[in-house]
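Researcher: Please translate sequence to structure tokens.
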Amino acid sequence: MDDASDAAERRNELRAPIELKVEYKRLNAFFADYTKNISRGGTFIKTSKPLPIGTEFLFKLYVPHLEKALEIHGEVQWIVTEADVTVGTGDEAGMGIRFVYGVGIPRDEVLRTVEKLMVDSLGQRLYTRLMDRAKDGEQTGGQTGGQTGGQTGGKDGGA
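Model: Translation complete:
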């Protein structure tokens, strides 16, 4: 697994398991894959052909009940290859993506949508409890609570 040694420390957002269709372009070819989970800071895209670490790209996230897909800029933070899965150092091939916001990028819309997806996935009560625990962890300088990971190193998403 590439760039995994401090991934758990880099992650600072609560994750919710969810499978959503994502589309992106790579070397003049279009790809359609699915997310494994999502947070306010990023997502994990399941794919057997992850992009190189550091790659910035635009992807479309298809969310049920939205008229059109969300277009989000992301940056590959870490990858799990098929070889990693074969030798047991990763659970599922793919790439951890950090959302990247700039001028004209609908940050508030993305955050509202992701938060709603997390509530729908976890339930309002659990989501609220985990977010409160995460805030307590930030205030005490500890690790963010509620982060369980299926990937080696406890990481399932972006930043």
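Researcher: Any highlights?
Model: The beta strands are 16-17, 21-26, 29-38, 42-46, 56-61, 70-80, 94-100.
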